[in-house]
What does this fold into?
Amino acid sequence: MKQPLVTYILGAFFGLYVLFLYGPMFVIFLLSFQGPTGGMTFPLQGLSLHWFKELWAQNVSGDVAGSFQRSIALGLLVMVITVGVSVAAGFGFRRAFPGARVLFYVAVISLIMPGFLISFGLGLILQLLGIDAQWFTSALGAQLTWTLPFGLLIMFAVLARFDRSVEEAAQDLGASRSQTLRHVTLPLLAPGIVGVALFGFTLSYDEIPRTTLVVGNSNTLPMEVLAMTNTLTTPSLYAIGTITTLVSLACILFALVSIIRMQRRTKLKKA
Amino acid sequence: MASFSPRGISWLQTAPLVVILLVFLIAPLAVIVMVSFWDYSVGGMYPDFIWLNYEDLLTSPTTIALYQRTLKFAFLVWMITLIIGFTVSYFLTFCIRSTVWRMALFLVCTVPFWTSNVIRMIAWIPFLGRNGAINQGLMAGGVIDEPLDFLLFSEFSVVLTYVHLYTLFMIVPIFNAMSKIDFDIIEAAQDAGATGFQVLRNIILPLTLNGIGLGSIFIVTLVMGDFFIVRVMSGSQSGTVASGMAYEIGGLQYPAAAANAVVLVAVVVVIVSIILRFVDVRKVLTE
It folds into this structure.
């Protein structure tokens, strides 16, 4: 199996791919610390926090602070609903029931349907019914059509590896159904549920195609940034990029650390 | 709870999912189909049942041009992401021995998925522009005398951005399929005298076909559904079917955009069903 030369070539290919993946991000990260006289490309005219301060002082057109708050709030809402609905549905799919197949296929369609069309259709409904679009109603619902299929598929993967005999063992030992759920099933599924939460928050936090036509008058952050790509021509645009990427990275790190700690704890209990 | 049958409990547990998908997926798609038959004028749209929107759409030379470009983008991005996705997955699965390292490197590939697409898109601008990093580097190195113009706001930068944003959707399913391959089969084939290429062609490729299929479906639907990357990264000089739709929606021509959407979905369904002839996606998604 060991073919050193092929391994090196493929390793170099992988390295180039990672460079391609992270290089541009790293460049705007660097350029967001551009000196006050610097522009949107290299060379760096010194390093400063000038462009972050501009954002802080609201010297840029657009509602960065407001849209940032809305995106965080919406992300948390989507996260909570995604966890609740996908965990419940995951349990539902553990038995065969009439309609299971159809529901599964509809969820897959929801996953691969171009998001822009969902936004358009929902926008038409709102217009026909004379309802105003809002980020916390119509955009929330539209984003759920993206996060729920992911949540459901993660629950499938998690439940497929879940050993049901531990539930039976708990009940043999006299645990009630709710005790089994609270003390056995949910703790064992917890790492997977954190994964669902990570998808729920981060996918909502960055969502554009489904949100675009149904967000209403108050934009979410990615929508605001998209609108700014034409108007904002200072490194402040990159400063937004740096901040929002750091938020995403913090979420990923938090989720990973929680998952690893939970898995360690279950292993200790087993031992 | 004892009063519910097992199937009743399943229905209750999946009811919230059903309601959300009905209201926010099925109903919007149904309304698009309905409105595609409506009439419209400058003043608004009117309930009707006419085929005019489809006739206008299917007889317009713009439509053909938009579909040609959309399909060209989809094909190019599919091919490039397939090559990258397969190679990266192969490296991770068969060249990295330690499970911890394999998962760590896989994570390195997936982290950008959870960060913002818009930011990752605009991150290419300082790279590719006339005064961007690539042009400055090439000019400093004496490779070129004048900055290359085709790098940014061109079809090149559109495809590059698609590949950058979407390759992960190819890597994950292929990696997932490859990591289920039993190493014993490969060793047995090698013991029986199979060359590396024969192992690749006769064992690894067939066993990863379902993953490739799922990844291909993702890529095709993502590229064909995109409406803003093509606009921003081509500097509004290029368009696809979805960005054409966005333009019609901006002009309040909803029934025309709706007919456009129905045809787009029909084309996507045809492509996806061709892919599904070769692979069993349900198997990949539920196992």
Summary: Chain B has a mean pLDDT of 91. The longest strand of chain B covers residues 39-41.
